[in-house]
Amino acid sequence: MVVGDVTTAVDVLVLGAGPGGYAAAIRAAQLGRHVTIVEPGPAGGVCLNRGCIPLKALLSASERYQQARQEELAQMGIRAESVSFNWSEMQAWKQSVVDRLSNGVRQLISGNRIEAVTGNGWFINEQEVRVEGEHGSHRFKFEQCILAVGASAAPVAGIDYDGKQILTPEQALRLSELPATLSIAGNDYIALELATIFARLGVKVRLLLPGERLLDGVDPAALRLVQAGLRKLGVQVVTKVKLAEVSERPLVLSAGVRPNTAGLHLDAVAVQLNERAGIAVNTMQQSTVERIYAVGDCTGGQALGSIALKQGKLAAEVGAGQRVQFAPLVTPLIVHTTPEIATVGLSAEQAKGAGYQVVQGRFPLAANGRALTLGSDNGVALVVASQEDGVVLGATLVGPRAGDIIGQAALAIEMGATLTDLAEILYAHPGLSETLQESAENALGKAIHILTKN
């Protein structure tokens, strides 16, 4: 029901309060704009409340449990005679993390004097949006509208999600009880991380891959270490699986996402969709209507919070008249398996496919002092560079805290660094980041802590 028809004028109207939405709203407010943000659920969106953060919280908790039970602790002189876990209490702790972060986002929104409205919004025309929520209907006229409405689990033909026997990854993270067995279909980072969580906690996990490999585009040598880690946890990996023939239950499907464009009434405006069913945007995040922007998962691009955050800030800056564009050279990917894997840029295979003559460097964690003091020697650092000029093209790290180190490689690639640049930096010793240095030195034929072939 429409309560009156009073129109509120705002500079920037943001639909969605996930990473892309709240980042856009805060940056716009920092730039002096009058901002209203609309979200039907808790602040933080899917990523914070039902996706990334809950997933990482359970990965952390399950890792602590796994570590306490490992034989490696006994080698350090540490013996835990009886270690157990309580799934309900683990879930409660996960939720406490989510609640703390969501409350933090709410405080940031309020502290930046952004008006927050609970509800769903859709276009009336190219300048107005109607929002229907618990407090009735509101009409907003905007100078700039930023769509950050995210995405939902992609449908799979012939299979219906019921939250019990057929689950989305989000539903799997909210299970009230652990199943004895669980099948997970997919080869992306979400499928691998879900398999890792449940296997660590004693669930018999089958990981069903649509093809022959985990994580498309990642170096095969690194993947072998990850797959060996999954086998050590008891995960059974099955290749070339056709979903239509899978009868195991419960089954989690990690089949990607579909942009949440339905319900926006895009037919009321000239906003066009792209071939991925997302909102088509240019490098400034503008849709086919100049004053309407889209960021994050609703554009149909790679569904990563890091991308949404960057695009959200950029859209706000463009709307304020700044000359900026979204043009990262590389996007880091982190998978919290055992061992952890992080990649950025091109693998050797991809670089060769792109026409480069490449040189590769490799350094095993078994030769790194810090890795051994952490009781973890199962890993490797791989660097790929152009043979012509030594410019770094990509890096893959496998081992503890790989995701925390990969940013250094990302910066190197963005800055056009060479192998010599990586080799000449002074690294803290002993440290895991030294593996990146020595892999670069290995590519140059002068690594210190491994034998180099003459």
UniProtKB/TrEMBL annotation:
FAD binds at K56, G121, D297. It holds the Pfam family Pyr_redox_2. Its EC number is 1.8.1.4. Residues 332-439 form the Pyridine nucleotide-disulphide oxidoreductase dimerisation domain. Keywords: Disulfide bond, FAD, Flavoprotein, NAD, Nucleotide-binding, Oxidoreductase, Redox-active center. Disulfide bonds join C47-C52. Gene3D superfamilies: 3.30.390.30, FAD/NAD(P)-binding domain. It catalyses: N(6)-[(R)-dihydrolipoyl]-L-lysyl-[protein] + NAD(+) = N(6)-[(R)-lipoyl]-L-lysyl-[protein] + NADH + H(+). InterPro entries: Class-I_Pyr_Nuc-Dis_Oxidored (IPR050151), FAD/NAD-bd_sf (IPR036188), FAD/NAD-binding_dom (IPR023753), FAD/NAD-linked_Rdtase_dimer_sf (IPR016156), Pyr_nuc-diS_OxRdtase (IPR001100), Pyr_nucl-diS_OxRdtase_dimer (IPR004099), Pyr_OxRdtase_I_AS (IPR012999). GO terms for molecular function: dihydrolipoyl dehydrogenase (NADH) activity; flavin adenine dinucleotide binding. Binds 1 FAD per subunit. NAD(+) binds at G186, N187, D188, Y189, I190, A191, L192, E193, G256. Its cofactor is FAD. PANTHER family: DIHYDROLIPOYL DEHYDROGENASE (PTHR22912:SF160), DISULFIDE OXIDOREDUCTASE (PTHR22912). This is Dihydrolipoyl dehydrogenase.
